[in-house]
């Protein structure tokens, strides 16, 4: 896990550990150049630093781009990935709490949920359009890109904080199944 400064890193780690995944954490400012064969997936947490600060996140973006394992960006982690690939962030209404999202259940990420999920939001920035090489696989009334996936199926992103709420846990389960 790459800690981008989220306050909920302990909850996110507990969720993955409850799914049987071992987790290591490194701060975004200390990411290695390469991952090595020890890791089966990479998770980018939410962030306090604005995702459009590309200089700050360049080593992280390079790591994600060069990795050959599944990657999942959560909230600010998704925004970092999207901005690095050409998306723009837009200010929107402040959302805190549970919100309904429609997801593409044909995607393996959503193998354990229904077409409408309730996920936890805590943000004001949104990705309005998936960048080139990605597509939206979840949407809501206030965010047309609630979830995204790279065209090759290796990189995922979630606008919501999946470390909270039951549907979030089940989406994390879907991601964990991609690399087990």
TrEMBL record:
It comes from the Bacteria. InterPro entries: ChyE-like, Class_I_gatase-like, GATASE. The lineage of its organism: Bacteria, Bacillati, Actinomycetota, Actinomycetes, Micromonosporales. One of its GO terms (cellular component) is cytosol. Pfam families: GATase (PF00117). Residues 11-166 form the Glutamine amidotransferase domain. This is Glutamine amidotransferase domain-containing protein. PANTHER family: GLUTAMINE AMIDOTRANSFERASE YLR126C-RELATED (PTHR42695:SF5).
């Amino acid at each position: 896990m790459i800690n981008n400064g989220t306050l909920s890193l302990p909850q996110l780690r507990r969720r993955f550990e409850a799914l049987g995944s071992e987790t290591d954490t490194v701060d975004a400012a200390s990411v290695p150049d390469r991952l090595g064969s020890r890791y089966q997936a990479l998770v980018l947490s939410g962030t306090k630093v604005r995702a459009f600060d590309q200089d700050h996140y360049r080593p992280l973006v390079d790591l994600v781009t060069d990795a050959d394992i599944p990657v999942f960006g959560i909230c600010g982690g998704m925004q970092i990935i999207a901005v690095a690939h050409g998306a723009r962030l837009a200010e929107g209404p402040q959302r805190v709490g549970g919100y309904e999202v429609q997801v593409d259940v044909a995607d393996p990420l959503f193998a354990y949920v229904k077409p409408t999920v309730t996920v936890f939001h805590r943000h004001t920035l949104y990705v309005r359009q998936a960048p080139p090489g990605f597509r939206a696989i979840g949407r809501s009334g206030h965010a047309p890109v609630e979830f995204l996936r790279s065209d090759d199926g290796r990189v995922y992103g979630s606008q919501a904080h999946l470390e909270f709420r039951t549907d979030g846990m089940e989406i994390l389960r879907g991601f964990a199944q991609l690399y087990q």
